[in-house]
Amino acid sequence: MDIMLFSNGKLPGNTRLLEFGLDWIEAMVKRTGVKKFVFIPYAMIRSDYQSRADDLQSVLGEWGCEVINIAACADPVEALKQAEAFIVSGGNTWVLNKMLHDNGLIGPLRQAVLKQNKPYIGWSAGTNIGGPTICTTNDMPIVSAAILPSLNFVPFQINPHYIEASVEGHMGETRDERIAEYLIMNPHQVVVGIPEGTLLHIQEGQLNYYSANGKPMKLFKFSEEASYYQVGDDIQFLMEHGY
C-alpha cells in the first residue's frame, strides 16, 4: 500500500493545491506508475466539485495523470474499481464520511487501497478518514445521522491541522484539551497531531513522518505526557496492534 495523509492542502504563499508536497507526490506517481486518479470531493461544502477537480488536473497533469471527479460518474463504486489511485479533498469530515458510507464506498476503497495496493492521497478531511474513526476531527457535525467509523487505514486516530496554541481572550478548550477529553473517554486509543505542512506516509506497511517546515508531529496517549517526533524518528510502533 502507498498512502499519503497530508495535514492540509496549502501553506501561506502557495498558489497550487498540495504545492508544498508536490515532490513527494511526484515520487509516488513515478514509483507506482499510476495515471488514472479518481477524485473524491464530498467534503467540500463552499466550493465547486469540478473546479477542485480541474485544479488537481492542472497539478497531476504535469506527470501525465488524469483526474476523474467521482461526483460526475453514474456509478461511483464502478469508478473506484476502474481507478488506479485516489485523491480525497479536505473540507467537512462528517459530510465526507457520511457520503462515503451512503454511497457504499467504504468497503471498495479499503479493498482497493489495502488489498489491491492502489495509492491514496488525502488531506485534512481526506486524512481524518484514514483512521479507525473520525472522532478527532476539528469539524462540526453539520449533518444528521453522523457516522463515526471510517477507512481504518491506520490503527490510530489523526488530528490534522494540529496547532499547539492558546488564543488570547478565548475561554474555550485548546486543541490539546479537546484531545485529552477524547482520550479520557477512549483510553485505549492514541492520537497523532500533524501540523500544517506535514504528512504521514504509509508504504508497504512502513510509517514515516515528513514535514515541509520542520514542525514535529505530536503523539497523545491517555494519562501520559504528550511526546514529539521529528522527521526521521522511528514511529513504526504506531502501526502495531494494540493502538
TrEMBL record:
Superkingdom of this protein's organism: Bacteria
InterPro entries with a match to the protein in the record: Class_I_gatase-like, Peptidase_S51
Record EC number: 3.4.13.21
Parts forming coiled coils: none
One GO MF term: dipeptidase activity
Enzyme class, spelled out: hydrolase
Stored NCBIfam families: PRK05282.1
Family classification: Belongs to the peptidase S51 family.
The protein's name: Dipeptidase PepE
Provenance organism: Vibrio rumoiensis
